[in-house]
Specification:
Largest sheet: 4 strands, mixed
Number of helices: 1
Bound molecules: copper (II) ion
Strand order of the largest sheet: 2-1-4-6
Distance between the termini: 41 Å
Number of strands: 8
Radius of gyration: 15 Å
CATH architecture: Sandwich
CATH topology: Immunoglobulin-like
Structural class: alpha/beta
CATH class: Mainly Beta
Strand content: 35-45%
């Protein structure tokens, strides 16, 4: 049953992704050792989401933007946290626990494609 639920949820997720005009979900791995954020620099479209996954192996990490508008709180090992970007711009972020862990997300407006 649990397996079925998982499939059902991912089906729902796929439907939602299709209906909201191909918003994508990007993944950034967080690790205790370099490269810390992988990829450290991400270019996405407006409306896309980024999932930060903590691959540890030991430390919790916190995603916070320099302007402090985006804050994940502690993301423990093997947990993840996601944010959907609804404003374009360049977001510089770091780990609030380890200031040397840094990354950027560049959010660009999608150019309307002619079909
Ligand atoms: Cu950290």
């Amino acid at each position: 049953m649990r397996h079925f639920n998982k499939i059902f949820v991912s089906l729902l997720g796929a439907l939602v992704a299709v209906s909201t005009s191909k918003a994508e979900v990007w993944t950034v791995q967080m690790t205790d050792k370099p490269p810390y954020f992988q990829p450290a620099h991400l270019k996405i479209n407006l409306g896309d989401s980024v999932v930060w996954k903590n691959s540890g192996p030991e430390l919790p990490h916190i995603v916070i933007t320099e302007d402090q508008t985006i804050y994940s709180d502690d993301v423990s090992v093997h947990s993840e946290w996601s944010h959907t970007f609804s404003h374009s711009g360049i977001y510089s972020y770091l780990c609030f626990r380890h200031f040397f862990m840094r990354g950027t997300v560049e959010v660009t407006k999608v150019h309307s494609e002619k079909l």
